[in-house]
Amino acid sequence: MKANRHNIFLVGLMGAGKTTVGRLLAKRLGLTFVDVDQEIEARTGVPIPVIFEIEGEGGFRRREELVVADLARCTGLVMATGGGVVMSPENRACLQRNGWVVYLSAPPHLLFERTKNDRNRPLLQVQDPLQKLRDLLALRDPLYREVADFVVDGAKHSAAGTVNLLTKEFTRRFP
Predict the structure, then answer these.
(1) pLDDT-derived band of residue 128, with 50, 70 and 90 as boundaries?
(2) Helix residue ranges, H only, 116-158
(3) Does 17 carry a binding-site annotation?
(4) Confidence of residue 99 (pLDDT cuts 50, 70, 90)
(5) Which residues bind substrate (predicted)?
């Protein structure tokens, strides 16, 4: 039994719609929305790409663990996590223990279309960003599924459709 089912944690790759869906879902359910990446930027005072440049991915992930653990203690949140949040066993356990975890899945081509012009995605500043998304999905999809209580196929639902689906499911599970 999870301690706090009044938190909703959205997981999935960059471009899956976690922030967009999270904002809409929080408004619909009367919960507080928080984006982990934005919270990290607010706490450090620098953009994510600068953290990656200075501290590397490992440094960023350590900061992410601290923010996730801190925020997960709150109640009434809809949290948009970073795409790599599931790479940490501590984060996976924290999310599972403290809320309802929703995996927003999407195929690599859709993720690419949504992220191709965003220079604030350090992991996609490579020669072939579509292949990078394929590689990330191959690595992370099993971990997203491991932590997820519910999976939404983003290729089949718009942001509004996803919010409707999650609202129904959340209120059904947690009346």
Answers:
(1) confident
(2) 129-147
(3) yes
(4) very high
(5) 37, 61, 83, 140
pLDDT at 122 over 70: no
Q: How many CA atoms lie within 13 A of 30 on its CB side?
A: 1
16 carries a ligand binding annotation? yes
- 156 annotated as ligand-binding: no
**Do 8 and 78 meet the contact criterion of CB atoms below 8 Å apart?**
yes
pTM of this structure = 0.91
> Is 2 marked as binding a ligand?
no
CA distance 94 to 174: 20
DSSP output for 25-49: HHHHHT-EEEEHHHHHHHHHSS-HH
97 vs 57: CA distance, rounded Å: 25
Q: Say what the pLDDT of residue 175 is.
A: 77
